Amino acid sequence: MFSTSDEYERALISERRAQGRYRTGIDWQPVILTGCALVLSGVLLVML
Question: In which domain, by residue range, is 28 found?
Fold first, then answer.
């Protein structure tokens, strides 16, 4: 079915991605961005 192990691994990973196995629970980038914005706002509010 597969001529090389690379083809097998590529097909296996593609199938697992299609099933949703490699998803992370939370996308952390917006959370971190919001946290940084809140900290910056707090610092600016204290300085004024």
Answer: 5-47
- Cα 28 to Cα 36, 38, 43: the distances in Å are 12, 15, 23
pLDDT in tens, 1-48: 889 999 999 999 999 999 988 877 778 899 999 999 999 999 999 998
- Residues in the chain, total: 48
Tokens of 5: 């192990």
Task: Say what the pTM is.
Answer: 0.49
User: What Rg do the C-alpha atoms of the chain give, in angstroms?
Assistant: 22
Residues 6+ apart with CB under 8 A from 21: none
For residues 3 and 9, is the Cβ–Cβ distance under 8 A? no
